[in-house]
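Run log // design_07
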């Protein structure tokens, strides 16, 4: 920004006191000029330089024009080609070369500010003497005390240097010093101007001045000013436009053209410049008359600067743009320290090629707006879609349902209702971590179960192993090598009734049975599960060490910051959607995890390619483990919790749903071999169950399947997936062992058999059953089930009160009765109803109730039905 100058006249008379002060000031000036080899144009009686040499020697002699803050351009892809996404800058400036600036602008600057620009050595003695006593006496008026363009360039450079200091306090102090209207500041400015004139050519100085000057309304340099105020380039300006721009520079906050209320002040100074241009024969009489007669309203075409990600060309890409801009400032290519990187970005001139596919992103933005309308008024609804390339980590899409707006929401206490974001907007990027403008993250629900499944497989367990989904209380769990008690006891519930009982791990996965997964975690170490999650990039969106038992000591936080409470395996930690998408991408990539990247390349102002984010991929999990987990999760999209979720294009896909206890967060994360997509719908505040409120596509809780299917279908059009490799049968089986059949054995025999097979014997008590009382009736899990070594097998013994009904069909009544009596059944009844016979089987048993093979109490009456004649009537000779 440029110093504002007073409106004092150059010819303003001075008082006697002012004249005396001015005389002293001018003697200092004369001493300075003599010291640096410049002789004043007039004699100053009584002035010597010896008393001022010490002052001059202490003044700096050298200043550089240096690099000026410029615009940075952010690019995306569309149909594989780079396209403009946004222009981002600290100062709205586009530097021009000398021959890119119109002669009208050059003439307006010289004629209006420094007529003898090409004749002096940085300081114009004639102008200084004319300004003389009045200016240096503290009445430095609009002329700035005879300031040349070179002196004004010095002042602007010092102002720019002030704005680049690290703290606001330092900036304000240095800026005040730069624009201060005092004799020491003026002397320093003059000496530095002479130094500039020695080092740089007139072309360089004039170009530097026109590029650095502030022209009001956050606009720097003549190119940005021409674009902003006239919607044209600085090469193409009319005399009145050129003079109007230069009229701003002396008072940018009161003469800029952003508002008609400033027009009169601008015209007053503009006309002075035009008269000077005419006097210097840089305008014809016709040009001058036309320019003087013109009005700003005739030629001002105010164009809003396309500054920042809010003005992004990609619909719905603003949040991605904001994230990418923050990431690029961390790149080592911009500097070795944070300070250097920030300064480099502020100086600008960079072209940043991001990974975003703006065409796919636009389609997903339409989709999320449809499924999670930002006009939802019943509760505060959020929604996101993130798609990540599996084998690179490149973020292809990033959208959310809220419109990008950095203003404070109107619902915040104390917010100005006239300057705040509506409820449809947000400044929070729900997709990313808090350090990048995200929020707290969201509880992931059962999408987090995948890390328990992976660690289960890493420990040699298989998908065919049997686990129990029956609700029970847990009193302890393994944490980092030691057993930790749980107080009060932890009693997780399944999401719906009918999910209890024994089941395979594969079934527990695609049905997403909570208790089954806690039982799996009981055989693992929670710290190992966390390490598996960590290897796939999982971390809290907004870690708070004090909540994890570290107090405020950030140095003691874990790598992932994932809290290890007993329910952690069911997804109670708060994680950003992009983090989950990248983790599933790593699974899809045969277990090789690539950290998310959003910058493909950065080109500096000289056109040199600096490269982008370094691809950082590691083998997080064994490929066979990833393939086995994928095998189980494929069924999620077919017969599991997201049945019907497969895309119609037929690509091989897997996924996992997630629902929090209160159903306030709903997830579906899945992938092809090429692209992983995470979809999330949920409360950004409050605990509204999404199972109790419907959106445009039915209940919000049920719409996740179609949302993910359509979101994945969009990216599949350009990123074709390949079939996943099937796991080996041994990977599916794991190191499980089969429960032996011990039915009919004594308890001692059963205990020995089970122990010898590697199981733990558990006495399940006596139950009504057949066989010899005290012998084994059954086991749980049943014989033939696959269990991990050391698993408990519950053994149930029989009380002998039951027997198995023998097969008596086709026997005579006597033989049937004898067989039943032998089995322990003393009550046998023969029905007087017959079934049609064929003459050969008359009077033989046709049916028995209870049926053969049924276990029934021995006091149960067994009913026999016989064959009769062919009409089903009783034969005469049956007894």
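design_07 sequence
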């Amino acid at each position: 920004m440029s110093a504002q100058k007073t409106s004092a006249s150059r010819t303003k008379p001075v008082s006697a006191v002012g004249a005396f002060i001015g005389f002293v000031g001018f003697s200092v000036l004369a001493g300075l000029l003599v010291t640096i080899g410049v002789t004043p144009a007039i004699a100053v009686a009584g002035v010597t330089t010896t008393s001022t040499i010490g002052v001059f020697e202490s003044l700096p002699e050298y200043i550089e024009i240096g690099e000026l803050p410029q615009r940075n351009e952010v690019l995306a892809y569309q149909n594989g080609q780079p396209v403009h996404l946004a222009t981002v800058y600290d100062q709205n400036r586009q530097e021009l070369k000398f021959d890119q600036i119109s002669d009208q602008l050059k003439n307006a600057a010289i004629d209006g500010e420094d007529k003898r620009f090409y004749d002096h050595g940085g300081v114009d003695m004639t102008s200084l003497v004319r300004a003389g006593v009045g200016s240096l006496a503290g009445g430095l008026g609009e002329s700035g005390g005879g300031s040349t363009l070179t002196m004004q360039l010095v002042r602007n450079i010092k102002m720019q240097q002030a704005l680049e200091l690290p703290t606001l306090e330092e900036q304000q102090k240095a800026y005040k010093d730069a624009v201060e209207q005092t004799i020491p500041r003026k002397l320093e400015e003059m000496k530095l101007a002479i130094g500039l004139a020695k080092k740089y050519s007139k072309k360089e100085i004039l170009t530097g001045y026109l590029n650095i000057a502030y022209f009001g309304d956050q606009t720097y340099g003549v190119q940005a000013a021409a674009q902003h105020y006239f919607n044209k380039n600085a090469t193409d300006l009319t005399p009145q436009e050129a003079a109007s721009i230069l009229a701003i520079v002396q008072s940018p906050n009161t003469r800029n053209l952003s508002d008609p209320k400033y027009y009169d002040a601008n015209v007053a100074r503009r006309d002075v410049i035009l008269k000077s241009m005419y006097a210097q024969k840089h305008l014809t009489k016709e040009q001058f008359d036309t320019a003087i007669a013109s009005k700003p309203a005739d030629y001002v075409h105010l164009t809003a600067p396309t500054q920042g990600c809010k003005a992004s060309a990609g619909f719905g890409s603003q949040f991605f743009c904001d994230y990418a801009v923050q990431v690029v400032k961390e790149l080592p290519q911009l500097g070795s320290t944070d300070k250097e990187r920030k300064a480099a970005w502020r100086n600008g001139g960079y072209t940043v090629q991001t990974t975003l596919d703006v065409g796919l992103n636009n389609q997903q933005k339409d989709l999320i707006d449809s499924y999670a309308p930002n006009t939802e008024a019943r509760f505060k609804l959020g929604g996101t879609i993130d798609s990540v390339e599996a084998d690179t980590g490149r973020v292809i899409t990033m959208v959310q349902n809220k419109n990008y707006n950095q203003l404070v929401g109107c619902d915040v206490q104390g917010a100005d209702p006239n300057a705040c974001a509506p409820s449809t907007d947000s400044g929070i990027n729900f997709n990313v971590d808090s350090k990048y403008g995200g929020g707290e993250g969201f509880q992931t629900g059962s999408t987090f179960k995948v890390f328990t499944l992976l660690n289960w497989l890493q420990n040699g367990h298989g998908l065919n192993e049997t686990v129990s989904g029956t609700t029970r209380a847990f009193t302890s769990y393994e944490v980092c090598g030691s057993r930790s008690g749980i107080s009060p006891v932890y009693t997780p519930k399944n999401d719906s009734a009918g999910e209890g009982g024994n089941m395979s791990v594969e079934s527990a996965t695609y049905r997403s049975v909570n208790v089954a997964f806690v039982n799996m975690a009981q055989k693992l170490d929670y710290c190992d599960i966390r390490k598996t999650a960590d290897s796939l990039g999982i971390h809290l969106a907004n870690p708070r060490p004090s909540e994890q038992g570290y107090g405020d000591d950030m140095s003691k936080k874990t790598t992932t910051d994932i809290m290890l409470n007993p329910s952690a395996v069911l997804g109670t930690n708060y994680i950003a959607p992009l983090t989950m998408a990248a983790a599933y991408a790593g699974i899809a990539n045969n277990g090789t995890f690539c950290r998310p990247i959003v910058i493909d390349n950065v080109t500096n102002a000289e056109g040199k390619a600096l490269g982008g984010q370094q691809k950082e991929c590691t083998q997080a999990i064994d490929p066979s483990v990833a393939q086995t987990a994928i095998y189980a999760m494929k069924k999620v999209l077919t017969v599991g919790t997201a049945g019907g979720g497969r895309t119609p294009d037929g690509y091989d896909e897997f996924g996992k749903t997630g629902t929090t206890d209160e159903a306030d967060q709903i997830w579906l994360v899945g992938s092809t071999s090429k692209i992983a997509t995470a979809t999330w719908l949920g409360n950004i505040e409050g605990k509204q169950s999404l199972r109790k409120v419907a959106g445009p596509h039915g209940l919000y809780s049920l719409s996740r399947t179609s949302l993910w299917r359509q979101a994945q279908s969009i990216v599949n059009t350009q990123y074709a997936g390949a079939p996943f490799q099937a796991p080996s049968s041994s990977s599916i089986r794991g190191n499980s062992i089969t429960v032996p059949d011990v039915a009919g054995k004594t308890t001692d025999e059963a205990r020995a058999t089970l122990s010898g097979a590697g199981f733990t014997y558990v006495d399940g008590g006596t139950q009504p059953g057949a066989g010899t009382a005290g012998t084994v009736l059954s086991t749980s899990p049943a014989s033939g089930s696959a269990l991990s070594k050391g698993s408990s097998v519950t053994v149930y013994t029989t009380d002998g009160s039951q027997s198995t009904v023998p097969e008596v069909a086709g026997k005579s009544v006597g033989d049937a009765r004898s067989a039943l009596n032998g089995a322990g059944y003393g009550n046998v009844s023969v029905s007087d109803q017959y079934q049609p016979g064929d003459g050969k089987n008359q009077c033989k048993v046709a049916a028995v109730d209870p049926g053969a093979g049924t276990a029934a109490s021995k006091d149960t009456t067994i009913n026999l039905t016989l064959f009769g004649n062919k009409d089903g009537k009783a034969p005469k000779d049956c007894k």
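Residues 208 and 770 are 103 Å apart (CA to CA).
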